[in-house]
Amino acid sequence: MGFKIIHEDLNGLMVIKPDIYKDERGLFMEIFREDRFEELGLPTNFVQDSHSSSIKNVLRGLHFQWSPPTGKLIRATQGSAYLAAVDIRKKSSTFRKWYGLEISKENNLQLWAPAGFASGFCVLSDYAEIQYKCTGIYNPKGESEIIWNDQSLGINWPVKNPILSEKDKNAHTLEQWLGREESNNFKIS
Would residue 82 show up in a list of annotated catalytic residues for this protein? Predict the structure, then answer.
C-alpha cells in the first residue's frame, strides 16, 4: 500500500495518487496513512474533515483560511470537478501562479494545497462530492476568498457562467486581499 506523488508544482503543491486494489468485489485504497505521508514529506496533522456536494456548473472558491493558516488535501468521492489552487504567499517564488486539474471518483487523484493557497472547484459532472482533510479547524473569522475570475490570475475555468454563492460573487480580487494586513500571515513551509 502506498501513495505516489505524480506532480509537484508551485512551491509545495502536490498531486497524489493512492495505490488502488481492484477485484470482482470492487476496490480498496488508503486515502491517508500517517507513516506513508510522512515518508513523502506530506502533512500528517489533519484536524478536520469536510465534505461538500454540488450540482453541475457550481463553482466554489477561491477559498482560504489565514487563522489558523490551513492546508487542504482535496479529493472527489463522487462525480468530477475541475480544481484550481493559487499560491497567495507573498514571499513564495511561485506567488500568483495557479495550477488546475480534474479530480474525479474515477481517477482518485488528491491535491495537497499547503496553507497560503486559495483553492476552488467547478463541478463538471451532473453531481459531485468533494472531501477535504484540513490542517486547521474552520474559523469563519479567519477565512477569505478571491473572486473566481480575477483577471490578474487568468485561471482557465471550464465554465463561463458558473453557479455561485453570494459570498463567492462578492469575493475580493487578489490585489484587494494583498492590501489587507492578514495577507502577511502565510509562511512558506
Answer: no
Q: What is the mean pLDDT of each run of 10 residues along the chain (189 residues)?
A: 83 90 89 90 92 97 95 97 96 95 96 96 98 96 96 95 97 94 79
The active-site residue, picked from 21, 63, 99, 138, is 63
Three-state SS at 97:
coil
Q: Which of 21, 127, 132, 138 is catalytic?
A: 132
Half-sphere exposure of 116 (CA within 13 A, CB side): 22
Side-chain half-sphere of 88: how many Cα atoms within 13 Å? 37
CATH 3.40.50.10890, domain 48-184, yes or no: no
Q: Delimit the domains of the chain by residue range.
A: 48-184
Tell me, what's the pLDDT at 189? 62
The pTM (predicted TM-score) of the whole model is: 0.92
Name 150's Cβ contacts closer than 8 Å, sequence gap at least 6: 62, 173, 174
Residue with cell 490578474: 152
What is the model's pLDDT at position 40? 87
User: Measuring CA to CA, how many Å separate 78 from each of 5, 108, 124, 142?
Assistant: 22, 10, 11, 29
